[in-house]
Amino acid sequence: MLVTIIGGAGAMGGWFAKFFKQNGADVRIVDRSAKTPEIASSLGVDFMHVDILSQHCPSDITEDITDTDVLIISVPIDITCNVIEAVGKRMKDGTLLMDLTSVKREPVRKMLECTKDDVEILSIHPMFGPTAKSIRNQTVIFIEISGRWGKLCDKIENIFERKGARIVFMSADEHDRTMAVIQGLSHFVLLSYGITLQNLNFNVEHAREMSPLYEIFTDFVGRILHQDPELYANIQMNLDMKEIHEKFIAAAKMLSSSVLNKDEEKFKSVFLNARKHFGNTEKALKESDEIIEIKLNKR
Known about the structure:
The protein is an alpha/beta fold.
């Protein structure tokens, strides 16, 4: 099985190039990065150094790229649909077109629009980043497209399951609604916290060892800030975030108002209502205690 990854010199593309090579596939990466030959050499895979979206990209190059069993698109969200459009109509019957994007509605629509009925389609979202050591126990969301699941989709699913991934099936709409909270809101909260620390000119490092809980939370803020801002901007701007942002800002204003007005009853009421909605807070307390204990033991 030949797996070709457009964007294979990027972090996630490179992760999956290594993953599929380790699992018996022939792998080729396609990328516009000047580092493509070097990265391909380090991974031990073939490569094509080309910008598939360039107006100077010859059609025979695109034909070469789509001459593969599985074509995976691992590029920034804002150009994913453009890349799908560039390759989709050239995909051969019986092959598989996949994407790894964090947003699903538009890429799935574009893959259906740009490919023939006999081309398999699979849209997946790995719920981990390129620093993951393995896929074992990691969640991978599969968007199954009706009528486009075939033997190659089965093969991909079997590889993931064999390596211990936790596969969750969703529709594209359900995925994007869920990710708007799981990713969009979480990132927004953490980024807001980091920006507030900056605006306060707060000494982050000085305070790290005062509280293990603060240290852990700050690590997650730093984890976001350490990564590519383009990725996080694309997630915020390609999911339906308007209502979520409004509700978060309204909640912050309501809490602030209760504090500034010294309205303890209002504060407690809001607090207890949130607890009731949350569910099993006792489990959350116990599991977070375990994380804190691990952090303390590393000091």
